[in-house]
Structures are given as C-alpha cells and as structure tokens.
Amino acid sequence: MTEELQTLYERLQFYFETRKFADLRITVLDSEPADVAVFMETNLCPNDRLKFFRLLPKELASDVFVETDADIQEELIRAFTDKELKEVIDDMFLDDTVDVIEEMPANVVKRILKNADPENRKQINQLLEYPVDSAGSIMTTEYVSLSASMTVESAFDKIRKTGVNKETVYTCYVTDRKKRLVGVVTVRDMLLAEKDELVAHIMDSSVKTVETLEDKEQVALKFSKYDYLALPVIDKEGCLVGIVTVDDAVDVIQEEATEDIQKMAAMLPNEKPYLKQSIFSIWKARVPWLLLLMISATFTSMILSSFEGKLSALASGAVLYAFIPMLMGTAGNAGGQTSVTVIRALALGEVEFKDAFKVVLKELLSALILGLTVAIVCFLKLYFIDTLYTDGIDVKVALVISGVLLCAILMAKTVGCLLPLLAKKCKLDPAVVASPFMTTIVDVLSLVIYCSVAIAVL
User: Phi and psi of 207, rounded to 5°?
Assistant: First the structure.
C-alpha cells in the first residue's frame, strides 16, 4: 500500500469514528471508488460497512458498490431496504448489474430483479441468457445511437438528452431504421465538423465488430490489438445489440491470465482472491492434479527398475544414478521455458497450428545452441571439479552425461512447443498441458535416452 493510500484510509477512519460526516463526504468525493471500496472491506466491520455506505453521496455509492468483492456486495444487499437497493441498481450500468447478479445466490438475485425497473429487468434478463464466456455476457446495452441523416447539431442534442446514463458518449454508433450498424463516429470528429454537416459524411463505415456469441477472450485480444475504448456487439443479422467497453476487457484479460497461471501450476481455476479461499477449496483445486502427477510419476520408477540391473553392472553405475535428478531437472526446465512461451504466443494470437513447422524449427535451433552451451559447461564441471570429490568419473562418463544432456534439452524443447500446439488443434486448453503432462513426458523420455546411451556406450 502506498503512503498516499495509507493516509487516505487513516483520514476516512478518523472522520467516520469522530462522526465528522461532512468532511468524510468531501474526502470520498475526491477519492477513487476502488480505493473507497478497499477501505470498506479491510478497515470496517459488517455493521460499520453499512453505516459507512449509507453516508456515501448518491453519485458515488453505486460506483463503490461495483468495486467491492462479491461477498461484501451480498452482505450489503441483504442489509439494504428495498428503496436503497433500487437506488443502487438504478444507478448502476447494466453490465455491472449483470456481473453482480452472476455472483449472487438465487434468493438475492430474485430480490435484485424485483427492485429493478421493468425496462432494466428486461435488459438484464436478456444479458443473462448469453453464455458466460461470450461477448454478450460482458456487453452493455447503454450506448449512444445516432442516425446517418442527422446533422452534427441534432446529434449533440440527442447526446445531451440520452447520454447521461450511457456508459460512454465519446464513441457513438450510427444505425439504420432496422438497428443495423452502418458506422461509428466520435465526439472529436463531430466537434471539429460544421454544425450542419451530416453524420453520414463524417462517420467511419469500416467498423470493427464482435458477435454476441464470440469468445470474450478473443474480444479482449481485439482491444489489446487495436487499442479501442469500446467495441460494438452485433447479432447474426448485423443489428447493434450492445457494446463492450475497455474496462470489461481488462477484467477479462486479468481473469484469463489468472486462470492460465493456475492451470500451468497444475491447479483447478479458482476465481476467489487467495485470502478468501477456504482450506477445502484449496485442497479441491490442487489434489486432482497432485494425484494424477503422482500416478504418472510411476512411469519414471518403472523405467529405472527396468534398467536397474544393467546400470548396476556398470563400474560407473552409482555415478550415473547420482546425475539423474540433474538431467531430469534441466530437461524439465528447458521444456517449461518453451511451453510457457508458446502458450503465451497462442493466447495472444501470435501463432497458430499452421505455424507449427516454423515454431519447431525456431525452438530446435535455439535448443541446439542452448544445449551445446549447457553440455560444454556440464562436461567441464564434471571433468575438472566433480572428479576432485567423486570417484568413477572419467572422460567417457563425462561425455555420456553431457551428450545425453544435449539430447534431453533438444527433446524437451520439441515436446514443449508441440504439446501446446497439438492441444490447441484438439480444442483443448494449452495451459493444461504446460506443466503436468509435459514434465511427465520429458522425464520419461530423458530417462530412456540416458539409460539407453549409458548402457550402449559404457
């Protein structure tokens, strides 16, 4: 926490406890809603949260409510009177209301819808019908719509009348009588045009759009690629049904990145903040993968058992066993570097399955240089340092270990780039194969190569 935020929280705490409510209202009006929400969550008990929330100016209350965590929102909703709940809901943007509803239990949802305006309730129900991972689920229907036949002056008149409750007025969308999207125009373009200029003459007719059922992650990537503040959402007939704003896209990017990190760490995704996860939920998220990895690791034991007799018969067998962890660890790290890089490139749309040959070639060439570097350093370490305190290491043994290390890195890099690409081709999540499956495959193949080469050469 920054010193500025700490000072803000101390001031709010002081004003609240000393009942200096006028000073408190002035302070919160000059503060960001997200900061006020964090203060409520971390510095106040449930009873005080409700009292504090009721002190917030009306124009700020709904913004602070949206920024609070779902469990705090539920706590406040249950404590609100019907009048208070209606005021908060009516002052919220529709997409924010839908986000809140999706996190609430059925009895709370019923109460929210009961207190919403009939028109809002109808639009909320429409948004709730879209799949949870679609553009329709994160869009808002609160946008400014203009006609191509309007003059700039009449367009501004409409913006003044209808723009108060719209999520954005900077970008306006031009539609025909059937609500089909025909163009987009910005307030900047209209400000720089003459009053009697027609919107049709200054609008941009080449509009980037998304469809209602398009995956929300792909929508978020379009924001990242084109630097838009908002994207129009159209249905199958090309009619404008809503817009997705950049704040919602940022939330999606954060959610997807968190989910990918959890999957790559061999955990089931959990949307709750860490400190709010129960011990049972942590256990449930981690135990399936741990059991799977434990069972898959038995392949390693089976391979070692099958080669044990032949390795033990070698004079340097004990030395070879000692370097198995180093070999498997280095190969696993090499594969992990590649898989994470490829998964990220897939997530950003930088590569596709058709680029598999280019990706494999690039990784093999880089793996060759990396493998030679690591193998040479390994040989020098084995021959000049390890021989000082370990018996049984000669030039041949050092060459075998170093040579297998080079082969293992080449193999791990190949597996690390191919697995995510194949997963994507099979319509699976590449993040799932990043760590658990890749590690198991690399470990097994490394051991087979190591034992086979050692027995053949030594």
Answer: -105, 130
The SS3 assignment for 184 reads: strand
- At residue 197, the pLDDT reads 94
What digits encode the pLDDT tens for the residues 341-358?
Answer: 888 888 777 888 889 899
Name the DSSP letter for residue 143.
Answer: -
Answering whether pTM is above 0.85, one says no
Looking up tokens 């198995």 gives 324
Q: How far apart are CA 412 and CA 353, in angstroms?
A: 19
Q: Cβ contacts of residue 174 below 8 Å, gap of 6+? A: 145, 146, 147, 148, 181, 182, 183, 184, 185, 199, 200, 203
List of the chain residues with pLDDT < 70: 1, 264-268, 270-271, 315, 317, 392, 432-436, 458
138-168 pLDDT, tens digit per residue, is: 898 889 999 999 999 999 999 999 888 788 8
Helices (H), ranges, 297-394: 298-313, 317-322, 324-347, 356-384
Contact 234, 226 (CB under 8 A): no
pLDDT the model gives residue 433: 65
Q: Which CATH superfamily is domain 145-253 in?
A: CBS-domain (3.10.580.10)
In 171-247, beta strands by DSSP E: 171-175, 181-186, 210-211, 230-234, 240-245
3-state secondary structure 264-290: HCCCCCCCCCHHHCCHHHHHHHHHHHH
How is the chain split into domains, by residue range?
A: 3-133, 145-253, 297-457
Q: What is the model's pLDDT at position 264?
A: 67
Closest C-alpha to 249, from 227, 274, 272, 273: 227
Tokens representing residue 107 in the block: 């009895």
Q: Which residues pair with 230 in a beta bridge?
A: 245
* Cβ atoms of residues 92 and 65 within 8 Å: yes
The CATH H-level superfamily of 297-457 is SLC41 divalent cation transporters, integral membrane domain (1.10.357.20)
Q: Domain 3-133 class? A: mainly alpha
The whole-angstrom distance between residue 219's C-alpha and the CA centroid of its chain comes to 13
Asked if domains 145-253 and 297-457 share a fold, the reply is: no
Q: Position 84: which residue type?
A: E
Whether residue 101 contacts residue 94, with contact meaning beta carbons closer than 8 Å, is answered with no
